[in-house]
Structure formats: C-alpha cells, structure tokens
Amino acid sequence: MRRLGFLLRPSWLILAALVAGFAYLCFTVLAPWQLGKNTSTEHRNQLIADSVRAEPVDIGELLAADSGVRPDEVEWRRVTATGAYLPDSTVLVRLRHLDGAPAYTVLGAFRLDDGRVLLVDRGLVEAVDGSRPPAVPEPPAGTQRVQARVRDSEGVAPDRAPSVQDGFRQVYSIDTGQGAEVLGVPLTSVPTGGRGGYLQVEAGQAGVFTPSPLPQLDSGPYLSYGLQWLAFGIMAPLGLGYFAYAEIRARRAEKSVNAPVAEVSEPEPVSTEQRLADRYGRSRR
User: Fold this and answer.
1) Res. 107 pLDDT band, cuts 50 70 90
2) Angle at which helices 31-53 and 222-257 pack, to 10 degrees?
3) Cα first-last separation, the chain
4) If we measure between CA atoms, which residue out of 158, 180, 162 comes closest to residue 171?
5) What is the dihedral sign for C-alpha 118, 127, 48, 215?
6) DSSP string, 107-136
7) Is 206 a residue whose pLDDT tops 60?
8) Which of 52, 59, 238, 277 could form a disulfide with 79 if both were Cys (CB 3.0 to 4.6 A apart)?
9) Greatest pairwise CA separation for the chain in angstroms
C-alpha cells in the first residue's frame, strides 16, 4: 500500500476528481444530448418521408379531441383547410432567407368554416435592397380551400419584441401564441406535442408566395458525436490509470538505481606454480 500512497497527494486527488467529473458529464449530459438530437432528427425525417407518401387529411380531423393521432406525429402532416383569410391579418417574420438573399416570411390568419382561426405561413418574399419588405398583397377574399403542412411553433425570443416597421407588423419567429397577441385574434393551435402548430401553405395554393423548402433528410453528425462522447468518457479513466501505472514504474526504477551495491572481495593472488599445475596437471613425485 505504501507504493500507492502518492495517489493520496492533492495533485492526484484533484486530477482524479476532474477525470471523474468529465466522465460523468460524458455519460449523463454530453452523449445523451447528441444521441437525443439524433433520435429527434431521425423522427423528423421519418415524419417528412411518411407525409410525402400520404394523402392530405382535413385539418378538422387533427383538431378533434378524439383524432386518434399521437401529437408527436402531427407535425409535417399534409392537410387541407376550407375557410377564408381574415382581412388585414398580414404579419412579417424578419431575418429569413430566400435563395441566399434576405427575405421575410408572410403570416396570416385563416378562419375555418367552423369558426376556428389558424395561423398560416403564406411563404417567403425577398427583401427590397436587403433591408425593407416589398409590397405584400393581401390574400384573396372569399372562401378558399388550401393545402398545407402542419408545423410546430418556433417559440419566442424574450429579447425580441414585435414591432411595426414600414407599415407592417413584424416579429422574429413564427409562434401561435405571439401571433394571437399581435393580431388580437384568438388563434387555435394544432396539437403537435410541442408549442402548438400552425399551417405552412404549399406551392400553388391561394395567397401563397415562395414556400419554405423542406429540410434535407439527413441525420447529421449527432450519432457520431454521441459515440465520441461515450468513448471520451471511457478513455478518461483509462488514461488516469495509465498515468498512475507509469508513475509506479518510474518510482520502482528510481528505487532500484538508488539501491546500495554490495562490495566484491578481490581474489587472492595465484602463484606461478599453481597456474602451471592448473594448466599441465600436478607433477609426479
């Protein structure tokens, strides 16, 4: 045990605590964070792929309390909605991009035949001179039947409040809760298992501009990152053990070098007669 006493020194104890803390973070925070992102990305990709093959359903089926559809499987579903756009309900979302250029997303309110009002994304419009919104026409009046995808609200940044600029109400994200406050209209959120959903109108529909493109069905690097954090969590304690073993070997080598060397006695001198006798044998007497 005396050989391992150096491990109780403060420097080694601090190093062991750091390694243990790093390994704990790898297994409980960092790796689950990346693996969770990989799982959610794969789930999103599967929902998009399924929606491409599926036929649109009426939005009323997803809004019904007994729809039988799990909320976490609602986003990206293709739906149809029949109703009319509310006049003077245009809201612009800032800091968007269209083909690499600054753009705005145009939001509006769509009243269903049953009276419920949904937030809709009418698509993207390119900014004028990279900083000002263009003239955005009002959506068509009268009853419309649109085809769209269900999207989950993006949430609201607390330090970015809505404003009125260039004659338009402007926000920084698409969120049904904030949209209801800005428009002064009670909006119905599509149940998505998250912040509440809205409709993203597809190309060729009434009142739509350039629809936002679908995400690429790529899982990304999250799985490899998660496995790397798991590997780091395993390698850190192994590295500490290796350094401790190397320290033990170095101490053993130092101890053997410093050990006292036993004195070697000098041999007694041998006479010429003894040397000749050893070489030619004893002489006869």
Assistant:
1) very high
2) 160
3) 68
4) 162
5) negative
6) EEEEEETTS-EEEEEEEEEEPBTTTB----
7) yes
8) 59
9) 147
